Amino acid sequence: MTHPTGTLVAERWTAAAGMPGGSGPAALARLARRLAGVPDRLLPLVLPAAVLALWQAAAFWGWLSPQILPPPLMVLDTLADLVRTGELGDAMLISLQRVVSGFAIGGTLGVAVGVAMGLSKPLEQYLNPLFKAIAQVPSLGWLPFLILLVGIGESLKIIIIAKSCFVPMVLNTHEGIRAIPRQYKEVGQVFRLGRWTLIRRVMLPAALPSVFGGVRLALSHAWIALVIVEMLASTEGVGYLMTWGRTLFQIDIVMAGMVVIGIIGLAMDAGLKRIEQRLRRWAPDAA
Predict the structure, then answer these.
(1) Contact between residue 171 and residue 214 where contact means Cβ atoms under 8 Å apart
(2) H-type helices in 120-181, by residue range?
(3) 97 located within any domain
(4) What is the model's pLDDT at position 60?
(5) Is 283 left (phi over 0), alpha (psi -120 to 50) or beta?
(6) Which residues, 6 or more positions from 12, have their beta carbon under 8 angstroms from its beta carbon?
(7) What dihedral do alpha carbons 177, 178, 184, 185 form, nearest 10°?
(8) Looking at beta carbons, which pairs linking 257-263 to residues 24 or more positions away fall under 8 Å?
């Protein structure tokens, strides 16, 4: 015997979905057809819009104190104030400079080590255990040792960011070099190209899509490591701005910083993804 409450819930569910009462599969099929009519470019906005609506509802109905969960408009006003006073611009400039410096060092070393390991099997056997040991320790796990070694100055941030970039660059470069078809090397030998010419003109361009995938991953790791190290051991930057807001118990500043970090990270990843998609067209066919 079906419980009256269960029947009522089912009727309300189908009515809310705009469907006549009937079988569950039919209702789901109707809902799927309606969602299929939504443009693909709008689908990624559904979940953020739902989170924003839930956030506004929580602030409006007082589920949490505004001191703990400030309303969205308050965070937006704080963000506008930070932009107007120039505090946010200065913090972003410092943070981006650190990311560029750390990535330049870690990325360059990562490509060099990845190429060397990809070209030399003995060198790979020698370096692989040490590299795996370094890779298994998170970047922030080096923080206490590095603070004792170099202090909390700019060197600390650059080293942490460089290490965050180094590991994915080595892995992707090594994989890209190993995946190059043997025919590419044979063509270079036919034309009697020197070793460095072969690497520069044949192997690196062929491995470029994989290397660029490492660039995308490395920048993502670098941005995350930067914000955390700025929150823990810095007096400047976006991460420090969030720490300063937490110290003053101004959570609106913290959430404004979170919004900025998310937007910058999303913009970097989207831009690199577009470039990577174009580079993937150059990927050699291993068949």
Answers:
(1) yes
(2) 121-136, 143-150, 154-178
(3) yes
(4) 78
(5) beta
(6) none
(7) 90
(8) 259/75, 259/79, 260/79, 260/88, 260/92, 261/223, 261/227
163 neighbors 139 (Cβ within 8 angstroms) = yes
Q: Determine phi and psi for 240, rounding to 5 degrees.
A: -65, -35
Give the amino acid at 5. Answer: T
Does a structural domain hold residue 181?
yes
Surface-to-core class of residue 118, CB atoms within 10 Å of its CB (0-12 exposed, 13-18 middle, 19+ buried):
buried
Output the pLDDT for position 165: 92
What letter does residue 237 receive in the DSSP assignment?
Answer: S
| Integer Cα distance of 99 and 227 in angstroms | 10
Q: What is the CATH number of the domain that holds 134?
A: 1.10.3720.10
For 222, the domain range is 77-280
At 18 the pLDDT is: 44
Amino acid residing at 164: S
Question: Do the beta carbons of residue 29 and residue 40 sit within 8 Å?
Answer: no
Q: Is residue 7 domain-resident?
A: no
Tokens standing for residue 165: 């970039």
Residues of the chain where predicted confidence (pLDDT) is lower than 50: 1-23, 286-287
Q: Distance between CA atoms of 42 and 258, rounded to whole angstroms?
A: 23
Domains: count for the chain: 1
* pLDDT value for 282: 54
Is the distance from CB of 208 to CB of 219 less than 8 angstroms? no
Please tell me the number of Cα atoms within 13 Å of 261 on its side-chain side.
Answer: 25
Q: Is residue 182 part of a domain?
A: yes
